[in-house]
Automatic annotation (TrEMBL):
Residues 136-187 have a biased composition (Low complexity). Residues 10-63 form the Clr5 domain. The lineage of its organism: Eukaryota, Fungi, Dikarya, Ascomycota, Pezizomycotina. It comes from the Eukaryota. Residues 131-187 are annotated as: Disordered. PANTHER family: CLR5 DOMAIN-CONTAINING PROTEIN. This is Clr5 domain-containing protein. InterPro entries: Clr5_dom.
Length: 187
């Protein structure tokens, strides 16, 4: 019953599914196999895992953080904390990076602040760092908003201007999502 034409989709067909896929894969943080199943069974959109992986790369939706990206974020975080006394929230391609990922990397590698500051890792232009609003960095209250115009100061390396952190290329349902407090880095 499966025909190869079931898996052939135009760019327009993929773009029509982008919001749904992004919602399940990024916002709800479901694994690819589960999103693939939802897309097929609920919405009738059939594609291979390889096709989805190509779209993930094309749409910059990769969930994995590269070693060089992690080093750049950690160095900037320590630098901001030591020089300016500021906490930091990081975004990669507009998506928040959970504090636990940063902490887990430091624990796994057994790093000290001196180790981190010894790195000369440039911050790519698609990584954004912001100061959380007052009361959210230390308290880490649930329901705090992690993106959008309510954020405090912003710093960015590598490109001029403010990087868009609100998924504005997607419909408003994804741009108003409130990120849980675990996305606020605290060390």
């Amino acid at each position: 019953m499966s025909q190869s034409s079931d898996f052939d989709h135009s760019t327009e067909e993929w773009e029509a599914q982008r919001e749904l896929f992004t919602h399940y894969y990024v916002i709800e943080d479901k694994p690819l196999w589960e999103v693939k199943s939802i897309m097929e069974n609920t919405y009738g959109f059939r594609a291979t895992e390889r096709q989805y992986k190509r779209r993930i790369a094309l749409w910059n939706l990769d969930k994995n953080i590269r070693d060089s990206e992690m080093k750049a974020m950690l160095r900037l975080q320590v630098q901001r904390k030591n020089e300016q006394g500021k906490q930091s929230i990081f975004y990669i391609h507009g998506r928040p990076v959970e504090n636990k990922k940063l902490e887990r990397y430091v624990r796994r590698k057994g790093l000290s602040e001196a180790d981190i500051m010894a790195w000369n890792a440039p911050v790519p232009p698609y990584i954004t760092c912001q100061t959380p609003p007052p009361g959210t960095a230390g308290a880490q209250t649930a329901g705090s908003q992690g993106a959008g115009s309510q954020m405090g100061e912003s710093s960015q390396s590598g490109a001029a201007g403010q990087y868009n952190t609100s998924f504005s290329s997607y419909p408003s349902s994804t741009s108003t999502y409130r990120y849980p407090s675990q996305y606020y880095p605290s060390f």
